[in-house]
Write a structure and sequence with these properties.
heterodimer, A: 206 residues, alpha/beta, Rossmann fold, eight-stranded mixed β-sheet, four-stranded mixed β-sheet, 6 helices, 33% strand, B: 256 residues, globular
Chain lengths: 206, 256
């Protein structure tokens, strides 16, 4: 039986680019929206745009949050993208304080817009990955590879050993995490041209 | 370090590119996918498709175009032109657009910015703005224009950009009409004033005629990105050439 990659559709994200990007590198990926389909998948991809609070609430409402966490607990492969990274953490501070999925310890906070840094928020555009731990999804990437970011919030893990890459925006922030078979990126591999396709291909192969 | 973005703009009429790069080889220059691929390979950081059809039918065709492009091109895509309602924005984002650019409709109904931002996030919500230097009673005013730059609104540029930011815009594309199409350079003064007044990224538009103009607007104009159509359309310069020029001048850019 061939490996099943499932992209979780909870009505909050553009999933077609993710699906087509997997197809481009030779892997079928199904868009799924029912809890039982998560159980059947070997690998799950959780994309996301929009607000932290709405996204987590929608996952719970559609009874997808539990199956996603169980999938991760079983040690199966998981890829979170953007909000799909942020929601893994305990708490998000976008418009108040909101509980996340709690898979990883830590928080999701707004970029510090302190005057001395004079940063524009959202952090929008191409920036580089500084690899802290060589996660298998980054295998074969040239040093300083550029990837596409568009976000106003970033994660702060309690356990710094899960940090896979950092990226510099005024100061370094966590641009991806890796723990066992859980991979999650703040940037958008599906919008990051060749580099992004390589990352998705690597994920399909882990 | 975050790189400065170079963004080619492609005008689309009834699903066909009418102002894109002119090919020397046997490629269909009206084909959005061929255009997008060419710009992607040349190092474009994002693409803007601007719908000039301005009809309901046009918006349907635009969503189909986006679907076709995102099946083959893996880079950020912004769609502007003719987006009047949350439903229009939804259709385009669900088709695969990263961002939607709201222009006239946002002036007529500022709440639209908030609605789109609420549903898809600030990051997907772009304010497109046609600005014009006009003289009223002997005093120069920077005025917001709508309807493709045909109608003055009496709204001041600086007021509108701050309001749009507070409503939920995550980016501003500032097109200065006096400079647009002149290829004599961007309006550095207005671009810098807008960029300094808001905390969100500002994309400069209108007037690019040379790599030096782009360098100027990124440095003196404090722009976070530069949008251009004509110089890429007429093959005056390639995106690769512009980026190399910027890199040599010490501007952080992504070279492919």
């Amino acid at each position: 039986m061939s490996m099943r990659i499932a992209i979780v559709d909870y009505g909050m994200a553009n999933l077609r680019s993710v699906q087509k990007a997997f197809e481009q590198v030779g892997h079928r990926a199904d868009i799924i929206s029912h809890p039982e389909e998560i159980e059947q998948a070997d690998k799950i991809v959780l994309p996301g745009v929009g607000a932290f609070q709405d996204a987590v609430a929608t996952l719970r409402e559609k009874e997808l949050a539990g199956p996603i966490v169980r999938h991760i607990d079983r040690g199966k492969s998981f890829l979170g993208i953007c909000l799909g990274l942020q929601m893994l953490f305990d708490t998000g501070y976008e418009d108040g304080e909101h509980r996340g999925l709690g898979v990883l310890r830590g928080t999701c906070v707004r970029f510090d817009v302190d005057q001395t840094l004079n940063l524009k928020v959202p952090h929008m555009g191409w920036n580089q990955l500084d690899i802290q731990r060589p996660a298998p999804i980054f295998a074969g990437l040239p040093a300083g590879s550029g990837v596409y970011f568009v976000h106003g919030y970033h994660v702060v893990p309690q356990d710094v050993s899960i940090i896979a890459t950092t990226t510099d925006y005024g100061r370094p922030f966590v641009s991806s995490v890796w723990r066992d078979n859980v991979f999650a990126t703040q940037f958008h591999p599906e919008k990051s041209q060749k580099v992004g396709l390589q990352i998705l291909s690597n994920f399909a192969g882990v | 370090m975050l790189t400065k973005r170079i963004i080619p703009c492609l005008d689309v009429d009834k699903g066909r590119v009418v102002k894109g790069v002119k090919f020397f080889d046997h490629v269909d220059a009206g084909d959005p996918v061929a255009q997008a691929r060419r710009y992607q390979d040349d190092g474009a950081d994002e693409l803007v498709f601007y719908d000039i059809t301005a009809s309901h039918e046009g918006r349907e065709i635009m969503a189909d175009l986006v679907k076709k492009v995102v099946e083959q091109i893996f880079m950020p895509l912004t769609v502007g032109g003719g987006i009047r309602t949350l439903a229009d924005a939804t259709r385009l984002i669900q088709a695969g657009a990263e961002k939607v650019s709201l222009n006239s409709a946002a002036v007529q109904n500022p709440k639209l910015l908030a609605e789109v931002a609420r549903k898809f996030g600030r990051c997907a919500t772009v304010l497109g703005l046609d600005a014009n230097r006009v003289t009223k009673d002997g005093v120069e005013v920077w005025e917001v224009f709508v309807a493709g730059g045909r109608i003055g609104t009496g709204i001041k540029v600086m007021d509108w950009v701050k309001q749009a930011e507070s409503l939920g815009a995550g980016e501003i594309v500032l097109n200065v009409m006096n400079a647009d199409g002149t290829t004599a350079g961007y309006d550095l003064e207005m671009t810098a004033a807008v960029s300094d007044a808001v905390k969100i990224p500002v994309v400069a538009s209108g007037g690019a005629g040379s790599p030096q103009h782009i360098l100027d607007v990124l440095k003196q104009g404090h722009a976070d990105a530069a949008l251009a159509a004509s110089i890429f359309h007429f093959n005056t310069y390639s995106i690769g050439q512009v980026k190399q020029f910027l890199a040599d001048a010490g501007v952080p850019v992504r070279l492919v």
